[in-house]
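FAQ

Q: What does a record look like?
A: Structure on top, sequence underneath. For example:
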């Protein structure tokens, strides 16, 4: 049930108006990798993306594959976090995922050369022009990571206290 809720939540939050790249999908991928069954962990962010893309629209296949692939990598980071879970690895995983998303989705050779030439200068221009989006990606990933992981830990602590209180 949690998986379906997260897919719906991710799709809705991505489809409603929000600052560019300030979305829950990266954090959802990290959270899914850390807490969900491996199969669901890697499919979760991709399902939310496909559903929201049905409403927002699809761009090029190269663009979608790089974005979806980046979120798949964030799910893999989450799988690593699962076995090394602490505040540092969760924050570090979120930051690493944001950086990988920025690097991968702004690779110029994956797109039409009329936007940026497929040169070192074109690549540098792409990365410089994408910095405002990177800031929003980083802030969004950190915010939603705090919400997902924090909510999960709060619920676990609440359930534990409740179970402990019932034992008296």
């Amino acid at each position: 049930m949690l998986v379906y809720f997260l897919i719906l939540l991710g799709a809705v939050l991505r489809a409603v108006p929000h600052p560019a790249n300030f979305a829950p999908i990266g954090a959802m991928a990290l959270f899914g990798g850390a807490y969900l069954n491996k199969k669901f962990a890697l499919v979760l962010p991709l399902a939310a993306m496909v559903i929201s893309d049905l409403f927002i629209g699809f761009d090029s296949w190269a663009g979608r594959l790089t974005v979806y692939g980046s979120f798949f990598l964030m799910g893999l980071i989450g799988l690593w976090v699962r076995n090394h879970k602490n505040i540092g690895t969760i924050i570090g995983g979120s930051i690493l995922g944001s950086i990988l998303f920025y690097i991968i989705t702004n690779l110029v050779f994956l797109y039409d050369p009329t936007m940026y030439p497929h040169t070192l200068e074109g690549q540098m221009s792409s990365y410089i022009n994408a910095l405002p989006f990177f800031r929003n990606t980083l802030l969004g990933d950190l915010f939603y990571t705090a919400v997902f992981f924090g909510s999960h830990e709060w619920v676990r602590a609440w359930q534990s206290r409740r179970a402990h209180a019932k034992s008296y």
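Q: Is there anything notable about this one?
A: The first helix runs from residue 2 to 15.
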